[in-house]
Amino acid sequence: MTSPVVELRDERIGARGLRLFLKRDDLVHPDLPGNKWRKLKHNLAPAREHGTVLTFGGAYSNHLRATAAAGRMFGFATIGIIRGEEHRPLNETLAYAERMGMRLGYLDRASYRRKREPDVLAALRERWGDFHLLPEGGSNAAAVRGCAELGAELGVFDIACCPCGTGGTLAGLAAGLAPGRRALGFSVLKGGFLDAEVERLQRETYGGRRGSWRVEHGFHFGGYARRTGELDAFADAFADRHGIVLDRVYVAKMMSGIFTLAGRGVFPAGTRIVAVVTG
Ligand SMILES: Cc1ncc(COP(=O)(O)O)c(C=O)c1O
Known about the structure:
By secondary structure, the chain is α/β, with parallel strands linked by helices. The chain has helices spanning about 10-15, 35-40, 45-50, 60-75, 90-100, 110-115, 120-130, 140-155, 170-175, 195-205, 230-240, 250-265, and strands at about 5-10, 20-25, 50-55, 75-85, 105, 130-135, 160-165, 180-185, 210-215, 270-275. The chain folds into two domains: about 5-30 and about 140-275, Rossmann fold (3-Layer(aba) Sandwich), CATH 3.40.50.1100; about 45-140, 3-Layer(aba) Sandwich (Rossmann fold), CATH 3.40.50.1100. Helix 10 links the parallel strand 8 and strand 9. Helix 2 (about 35-40) packs across helix 8, helix 4 packs parallel to helix 5 and helix 8 crosses helix 9 (about 170-175). The site of pyridoxal-5'-phosphate has 18 residues, from helix 4, strand 7 and helix 9.
């Protein structure tokens, strides 16, 4: 499954002497789009071996959705642990996950923050039995290795951009780049802790930092899943002009960041930028 790379023609980019390409990973699979497929790919074998996967997410998590779909497609049971209380009727994301056979559980916010700690995991094993654990956002070493495969598919460019939530996509993308190329991640979260997370994931996967990368913190538009009029206007205009509807939790924030940085003259003329459309 290789997704296309297409050039985006836009005078705001061209006027700066830049070229912008889109890596359309969103087209890779209807139920496992973009970085979801990259991150799950190398987790499928251990998941099937174990028979059951348990993972975490917010009530609107694309990752929970994709894990539920993967369980149904590849034959393993799935448990989704959701941050906060249960709300019925389920929203569209969770209703879909349940239809795919995912069993849903809930953790109060304080316990959810401690979800990597042994006592919280022990209580989950007590409640749900044994499972293969997938961290929040699916970001583990296997996911990072899957995202590293992206680097090789990107063609000729200087800077590769992706949106960042848990940091796994950037950790892998940066590690997979050929020498001389750089990765730039756009954080969709408020608070500058993602650099440490990307570094931690690279250490877990490769034993140390890999590739040339940086996290840009100026384009979270208020924080996770928050939107502003400016972001909506950018995404609406982008859809009108290019016929591509951008996911607003992640991809629109990255794209708006790229256009803004280009407008500020941050990228030298001649730079070829590829933006990964992760979902
Ligand atoms: C569409 C999309 N783009 C980007 C990301 C961020 O990826 P990561 O959590 O690996 O930083 C996510 C979340 O997994 C996502 O759903």
